[in-house]
Amino acid sequence: MKLGIDFGTSNSAAAAHIDGKVVPVSFGDAQQFRTTVYFPEVMRDPNDFELTPALEQQVDELIESGRRSARAAGATRSQEQLRSDAIRVVRRQWMEERIREPRSSTALLQNAVYGDDALEAYFEENEGNLVQSPKSMLGYNLHPRAKQTITGIATHILEHIRLTASRQLQRNVRSALLGRPVQFRSSIGAAGNDQALDILRSAAMAAGFDEVDFLEEPAAAAMHYHAVSSERHEAVIVDVGGGTTDIAHASVGGSAAPQIHRAWGIARGGTDIDLALSLAGYMPLFGRGITRVPAHHYVEAAMVQDMTRQRDFRQHNYDAVELPYGPRLQALQDTGNTARLYRAVEHCKIALSSQPNHNSGLDFIEPGLSVDIDAPHLTAAAGGYLSELETLLQQVRADIGHDPAAVFLTGGMSRAGYIQQAAAAAFPNARLVHGDPSFGVVQGLALAAAANTADVGAA
């Protein structure tokens, strides 16, 4: 039996085709879980910290940076204050590096917590390592150690999926068909796709899978749509997920096997809207566009998926930033608070799909602090992504040369009205078919796995 796995940027799911039907794997009470993992660790004793020559150099660099920042803000800070702050930052970074030191895979897996429970455990413990959306980093230019870390995290998540499926299905699951986007998010061009697939394959094998294949996610969604279509017709499959947007042109339905004619994709999705909403709607409360704090600091704070940017944000010094923004930025640097803010942004985006406005309480930053966001604000924040989506849809329409009979929408972001409107406008003569936003891809993967249909060439 081959397990279909949708290893998603925002959420992950798995399913198998057994006795003629798709059987989803349950993770607790749900059929998917947030692609987030928390590794609890014991905090190292700060008293073990000693300034080595290399750390002294870091302190000196931070002192000079702090002096420049204070001068730019018109403030005066003593050498003693600058050095004390610099040592505090270097000590915190040293402790974080100690926490990240490798432990045995067995110990990490035994103590790991996944999904929304991972967030709650992290907030409760206020220490340890929280990793969100590791898929978004697979195609980036990674230092060898960072690549090893990302591979290890993916391994733990895939092993969690394999063991959960094995227990539920009462058989030792050793074969998997993993969904993959047409284009991974990447900072190294086409090489990012190869690297991402190498990492996923290595992680899956380390997780206990003996056989691993890949299938492009819009092709998997087409398999799902095919299974519920009685008559043969031409369709454009639009899969809008958290990290990527994928489109396939296919012939589906009837007794013949589905046929994928072509696929397109961009490495943009719901997390880009989250980032834009955070920057436009939430970060002004922290001084974005008001103070002299560089704009990239706010991007670092908002991108919880990027461990390097999160580390960089925690190292900045905001003592010289005017009230109330300096203390708010310092509060945002506290353990877990960027994750709390990101969750508030996510909840806001989801809420505005069905209601005109939403209020987010930010008491974890400052008592009584909140922000009101309305639906037009979200649509404006989504404008950059929507422009890219519309361009992609226009390209698909031009490449096909005509409207298909149907446009099939799936993926978590397909719930949003502005996504549906963009798809309908691109193909005005096609009927719009709403698939299962959360499970269309994984159901297709289960069907494809049973049919032994895999995009082996892309693997």
From TrEMBL:
Annotated signal sequence range: none
Keywords of this entry: ATP-binding, Nucleotide-binding, Stress response
Domain of life from the UniProt record: Bacteria
Pfam family membership, one: HSP70
Coiled-coil residue windows: none
Gene3D superfamilies found in the cross-reference section: 3.30.420.40, Actin, Chain A, domain 4 (3.90.640.10)
Listed GO MF terms: ATP binding; ATP-dependent protein folding chaperone
Keyword Cell membrane: no
InterPro entries: ATPase_NBD, Hsp_70_fam
Protein's name in the database: Heat shock protein Hsp70
